[in-house]
Amino acid sequence: YTEAWDADKKSIHVMPDTPEILLARANAANVSKKLYVQAWEEAKKKGYDMRADAIPIQSAKASRDIASDYKYKQAHEKQKGHYIGCPSAKEDPKLALAARAMALQNDRLYRKAYHDSKTQIHIPVDALSVQAAKECQTLVSDVDYRQYLHQWTCLPDQNDVIHARQAYDLQSDNVYKSDLEWLRGIGWLTEGSVDVVKAKKAQELLSERLYRTRPEQIKFTSITDSPDVVLAKTNAMQLSDV
To answer: For residue 121, with 0-12 CB atoms within 10 Å meaning exposed, 13-18 middle and 19 or more buried, which class applies?
Structure first.
């Protein structure tokens, strides 16, 4: 059955210049750590020449002077007492500082550059982030996740097929309940069943008539000369209006 498939597997050959292979090689080169730091490693091997008048040294010194608190306040200290007042509001340092702070706090001006630039972003379709997002969407997609198996064609006289049919027959609900089909339509009286007998016993236990005996049902003969009877007769004679 699988001889043709096994022979077909050995004859498959993928060309090395297919778009999928080229894309895989480009992605491997983009995510390669070795290629990413190759230029840096080669630059470190060449060494460096650090002179006092080099541009990075001069830039670092200028940045240090700008960041220095002494240099920052030097011009302000020299101008102290040289002027009284300002020709205009724009030349007043405090008013200029207040205007600058108000402009920074203005939300519309704060977001103006963002709103002007957010519509000018162009993302290439082959970017790594876009490709990763597409692969993630493919992984979480329910359509791609559910791949139904194809219909197998089996011979009806195979041993595994016969065994499967027997197992299905044993597990089938119709076959499991087939021995009860002859009971359908047969009448049945509930007299003598467990539930009926239990209900009768419970009724007898809860019956007030069987539990208590009424006084008028008890047969007795009163003694006429007992002390309580004689006392009752005497009291009746004394209380009689006659």
So the answer is: exposed
Please report whether residue 17 resides in a domain: yes
DSSP string, the chain: --HHHHHHHTT----TTSHHHHHHHHHHHHS-HHHHTHHHHHHHHH-----TT-HHHHHHHHHHHHH-HHHHHHHHHHTTTS-SS-SSGGG-HHHHHHHHHHHHH-HHHHHHHHHHHGGG----TT-HHHHHHHHHHHHH-HHHH--PPPPP---TT-HHHHHHHHHHHHH-HHHHTGGGGGGTT-----TT-HHHHHHHHHHHHH-HHHHS--GGGS-----TTSHHHHHHHHHHHHH---
Residue 148 Cα distances to 138, 140, 141, 151, 168, angstroms: 17, 17, 15, 9, 22
Residues of the chain with pLDDT under 70: 48-49, 81-87, 89, 143-152, 242
Q: pTM of this prediction?
A: 0.18
The boundaries of the domain holding residue 11 are 3-45
How far is it, in rounded angstroms, from Cα 99 to Cα 88? 14
Per-residue pLDDT tens over the stretch 144-185: 666 666 666 777 788 888 888 888 888 877 777 777 777 777
Decide if 11 is inside a domain. yes
Q: Could you tell me if residue 166 is inside a domain? A: no
Q: How many structural domains is the chain composed of?
A: 1
Determine, yes or no, domain membership for 34.
yes
